[in-house]
Design goal:
Elements lengths: L9 H5 L50 H23 L1
Length: 88
């Protein structure tokens, strides 16, 4: 008897879908928030995402060019030291 109720589902069915992938790997079937590419559950909702000027997003510096060069120099020094010990 519930099928007798008139519903206006056309706009909902024709709405663009969310572009996110679910944990299962399939595309999300929820409609995207108006003017966005994601649904309310995948970041399209008002206020979602990191705040402006988020300090938590800063890099720790472990993989900067300077740190990589320093680590490479240390490895070269250790290799040279081992080689010197083996020669004596």
């Amino acid at each position: 008897m519930g099928s007798m109720h008139a519903r206006n589902t056309g706009p909902m069915r024709s709405a663009p879908r969310c572009g996110a992938k679910t944990r299962k790997g399939t595309p999300c079937q929820a409609p995207a928030v108006t003017g966005k590419k994601r649904c309310r559950m995948h970041g399209g909702a008002q206020g979602s995402g990191a705040p402006k000027g988020n300090q938590n997003a800063l890099k720790h510096g472990l993989y900067t060019g300077e740190a990589k060069a320093f680590n490479k120099h240390i490895r070269e020094l250790l290799h040279a030291g081992k080689k010197l010990i083996e020669e004596s």
